[in-house]
Design goal:
Lyase, Ornithine Decarboxylase, Chain A, domain 1; TIM Barrel; 13 helices
């Protein structure tokens, strides 16, 4: 085994040496930066697919505008890249973020639509947030005091959103205190309430109660002469199955990326979505293993017969789910191959006893080409939720195409 492993490592090192350290000869060209990128994973993004999805979601909600939630780096696909596309969508009225620095990054990259910061903010970034017209959320007495101090330090009107906890129990002003605190917010001269929102739970019976609480609060504030601006409640799941949640705008997240919150939802056939991204990685190593040899630290996969194994430079540290080794497929050329091992930095793919695959060929790990490699298809194969399949690291490079 030690001898086989040594041969395995030496083969890889020789391959790298040949790719990058071989002396120049006639007809050989120095590798460009683009060539070097082919040794790393990347994400490809379709502009037309994102615009299609935004339009479809608005149709689902009877034409209501979208407040596009691009939290967690747009589920790993790239918040700046996706926001730049959605900035051109007539169906999208604004962008919602949870991190202050990422909200500022959108503005710095030319996004012009209104941006809501749903989370807290660093005082050191407060002036930049005001300068970039980022709407700040007030979700507690503490954040109110923080924003009130900020209002006293500037002559510029600060746009704020009232974040109400109607029962999720995670974030927001407890609904029993929301009317009293909102009155205090409305009394501050430099604060302008432009939005009010809450987050609904999945069980519909309790979500209905949350909607009733929210409506009571906003109606009562209205009777007191306090406008709460644009109201929104519905994340992707409620948007699809609870029309009472639509309010003035809807707030999709996962749907924008072409994935439904649950498998086999009725809306999927009525409003077909498009997978707007591809996760790709090149083959950086090929080795034919013999029966009895294994792959990985835990020897997760044991070879039963002579078998070509491809190594891809992507693993769970890049956001590719380690569960892929439990049944996921990747597309190489026109064939699907099983993933047999995933570690922090690499994934191994079984190519069988004979293969046309070569080092440098590109694998599509997630994409629209085959049902098995869509986020839903991946989730089905590995028996895990499709939300887990789009959690890629910000370090992955991205490229936007008009269409695939």
């Amino acid at each position: 085994m030690k001898k086989d492993r040594r041969k395995f490592i030496n083969t890889a090192l020789m391959g790298v040496a040949m790719m990058y350290a071989a002396p120049l000869s006639a007809g050989r060209k120095v590798k460009s930066e683009n060539d070097l990128q082919k040794s790393k994973p990347w994400i490809e993004i379709s502009r037309s697919a994102y615009l299609h999805n935004a339009a479809q979601i608005s149709k689902m909600a009877d034409g209501r505008p979208l407040l596009a939630v691009l939290k967690n780096n747009a589920y790993g696909i790239g918040d700046v890249e996706v926001a730049t596309i959605l900035d051109q969508s007539a169906a999208v009225s604004g962008i919602a973020m949870v991190r202050d620095d990422r909200a500022i990054a959108l503005r710095s990259n030319g996004v012009s639509k209104p941006i809501l910061l749903m989370g807290d903010f660093d005082v050191e970034l407060s002036q930049a947030l005001i300068q970039h017209d980022i709407t700040l959320s007030i979700y507690s007495n503490a954040t109110f005091e923080k924003v009130k101090r900020l209002a006293k330090s500037t002559e510029k009107k600060i746009s704020v959103a009232i974040y109400i906890d109607t029962g999720l129990g995670r974030m927001g002003i407890p609904y029993q205190e929301a009317i009293q605190l909102t009155k205090k917010v409305a009394a501050v001269p430099n604060l302008s309430i432009t939005q009010a929102f809450s987050t609904l739970t999945t069980p519909q019976d309790f979500a209905q109660e949350q909607i009733r609480r929210f409506k009571h609060i906003t109606l009562e504030l209205g009777r007191n002469g306090i406008s709460t601006g644009i109201k929104h409640l519905a994340p992707s799941s409620s948007l699809l199955d609870l029309s009472d949640s639509w309010q003035d705008a809807v707030r999709p997240g996962i749907l924008l990326h072409g994935s439904f919150p649950l498998a086999k939802m009725e809306a999927a056939s009525k409003y077909p979505m498009q997978i707007p991204f591809k996760l790709k990685a090149p083959v950086i190593r090929l080795e034919k293993l013999k029966p009895g040899q294994t792959i990985g630290f835990s020897r997760f996969y044991k070879v039963q017969k002579n078998e070509w194994i491809a190594t891809l430079p992507i693993g769970w540290a890049d956001g590719y789910d380690s569960g892929a080794e439990n049944g996921a497929k990747v597309l190489l050329g026109d064939r699907l191959y099983p993933v047999v091992n995933v570690n922090a930095s690499h994934a191994n793919v079984s190519l069988g006893e004979n293969t046309p695959v070569k080092v440098g060929d590109v694998a599509t790990l997630i994409g629209p080409e085959r049902p098995e490699i869509t986020p839903e298809g991946f989730g089905t194969l590995v028996k895990r939720h499709n939300y887990l399949q789009i959690n890629y690291r910000e370090s992955l490079s991205k490229k936007i195409y008009e269409t695939f």
